[in-house]
Amino acid sequence: MSETVSPFDSLVVPRFAEPATFFRTPWLKRDAEVDVALLGVPFDFQSNRAGARHGPAQVREMSRLVRRYTSDGGESPFDQCTVADLGDIPVIPIDISRSVESIVYHIGEIAKRGATTVCVGGDHGVTFPVIKGLGYDQPLGIIHIDSHPDAYNDAWGNRYNNGTLLRRGVEEGLIDPKRTVSVGIRGTRFSLDDRDYHRDHGMRLITFDEFEEMGRAATIAAIREVVGEGPTYLTFDVDSLDPAYCIGTGAPEPGGFTMRDAQVLLRGLRGLDIVAGDVCEVSPPFDGSNHTALNGANLMFEILCVVADAKARRKSRT
What is the DSSP string of the chain? Predict the structure, then answer.
């Protein structure tokens, strides 16, 4: 792999030096040809505790602390694939419709050049246009790690918001409900029918209570069984973590995953055909310590490892 698309060596260029990029990878133009494009999608759909638009910038800053290799000694994603920071997807503040169109278009242009994507939101509303922009010719399986079911119909009449991605994706034929699993669902609820969409469309929903009863290994096995061998998108909402690990998010819910839980779950997805992924809902204005953004950066790295591994396996078959 060319040195021009390799992260800075932190033993040569100290981690506090140079402008912040995701994992200190090169910052390239969006028309660059890479295997994996790291992208910010800085848009807030939600109106209550907004601030996730600042997530990409702070995750970049905290990703300085993430080293090149995984803790288990596995192959580095930067050795498996060409990986670069391609900047932020253009959005239009407070204009949901135009921002959705822009995200779909720009992700589509990147995907046409053969790159897969690992994105940082923005709130969870950005995942739907990212999936749509990828332009797969078949519905994707979804691994949806979250506190909330994200299958609502609308909010104040708007069908695109941070709680509708699964419903919109199924309706538009982008998501295969039979290959979709939501993990970690918990917290207070707007209504007692908020999980019915999953049941009625054959989506697997694993509440946090069920996760605790099953344990990590059985949960990983259930996820793998649901999505099977087909192309799958991985989305991680940081509010699935306990607020002790993510107070800087728009909808914190007590009683969630530890960071160790999250790391084990994500590492357990190796070998699946994960075609792209994201981390959403890091909201730096609610966490002056940057603890949430640091955890977001580490989660992004775990997702990058899974995506790069899958990308490298697909490349080896062509």
Answer: --GGGS---TTTS-TTSS---GGG--B--TT---SEEEEEE-----SSS--GGGHHHHHHHHGGG--SS-TT-PPPHHHHS-EEEEEE----TT-HHHHHHHHHHHHHHHHHTT-EEEEEESSGGGHHHHHHHH--SSPEEEEEE-SS------BTTBS-STT-HHHHHHHTT-EEEEEEEEEEE-S--S-TTTTHHHHHTT-EEEEHHHHHHH-HHHHHHHHHHHHTTS-EEEEEEGGGB-TTT--SSSS--SS-B-HHHHHHHHHTTTTS-EEEEEEE---GGG-TT-HHHHHHHHHHHHHHHHHHHHHHHHHHT-
